[in-house]
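Sanity check

After download, print the first record. It should look like this:
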Amino acid sequence: MTAPRLRGLVDADRAAGPDDAALHALHVATAGAHPAMAAAELAASLRDAGRDHGRRVVIAERDGAVVGGAGWVEAPPWCFGAPLIAAAADVAAALIDHVVARARACGARHLRISAYPGESGKRAALVAAGLTPALDFLTLARPLAPGDGAPWRGRLHRRRWAELDVDRFTALSNAAFEGVANAPPMARDAVAELLAGDGVVRDATAAYVDDAGAYQAFVVVLAEGEGDGRHAVVDSIGVAATGRGQGLGRAVLDDALAAAAAAGFGEMRALIASQNHASLALHGARGFTERARRSVFQLEL
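Expected structure tokens:
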């Protein structure tokens, strides 16, 4: 069998190209029972700020056909290989070798790549490359109906999407997720791009500030899926250290649920690391249950 050949992503701007359709078909085929990204979401993720707008993405070809692809996020001391989509074990091995080399080149000390339960060839390639299981990512889901949740009534002031200060939002987000698995600090430009993206549910994305204007909590809600599968996702939710243990996270999540339900979404999801016990407990108390999970493998460089 011909060895796969790697090349850079052909269309490194925002427009979708033929690589996107081929990669999405592979993604759906390899995801199995795990919720797959919509085609537009996968294309956008390949070209986001974390992947340097497509310059940190390679496509694997065999005999002229697309058989895989991989992107990576450089955030030393971490590097994250995602997405990594492969039609066969040897394709996965070639992509993993490339991402490992890029992780070493950027000075990362730890590399993480995840795999769905049905990706047996990819899992075998990860183990062969020296990566070992580190944690799981759980997809949690909760149905929504009109009147769900509880609109904000707290002592803090709600800053809606149009009023958000990107610098303060970035500072609070990085502080809230310090030390959380698979949550490296985000650059201001990446946060600005996220908040300005078409997928943001603007009515549900907000910050909560005290009388002095200090940001104490935040939530980012995205819209994902297509057609009947369209749903809302809690992309991130965080509380400043000084506000923890007071029910603030629960009130923010209730506000997001209410806003998403009012916007017409029938389901809310969240992707949470198995080690993030506080977030798992928070979402579980609000009716979220496990829909699927994938394993995260780690390599010490």
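If your output differs, re-run the checksum step. Summary of this record's structure: The CA atoms of residues 4 and 94 lie 7 Å apart.
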